[in-house]
Please model this.
Amino acid sequence: MREEYLLAALRMGAGADPVPEGVSAAARAVFGLRVPGGVPAGPVDLPVPPGARSSPEAGTAQAGVRRFSANDLVIDVETAVTGGRLEVAGQVSPAPGPDARIEVRTPHIAKVRAPSGSGHFAVAGLPPGWVSVVCHRPGHPPVFTRWIHVHP
Model:
């Protein structure tokens, strides 16, 4: 079969077969995880983690430590699984201010914390899996990290 015939057959089949309910449900669930009006923070290379916890060896980044940046805001995130539960610690810099909130999200649960005066935050007891961090600051759009997959 030539490529153009295969593509034509696929186009015809797409109109005849409905989308499976499981696929539709998954698409709706993913749509609910978005941050409307938010700004995505892109990953930044991090040779040495200056944030939440110190590195075991000078010049090396710990596994589970990631940095994200957008709109002059830096979000350092460290993840660990302890006792089968996910722990997330991090720092937002510059410190986002007294009315800011840090939201640590999984597909099933979100926990909100007020950052310390230096921008540190921590959440424990989450299920291992996918996690994202959102910084909410009054007068600014929320800044969010991409989803990180954390497994034991």
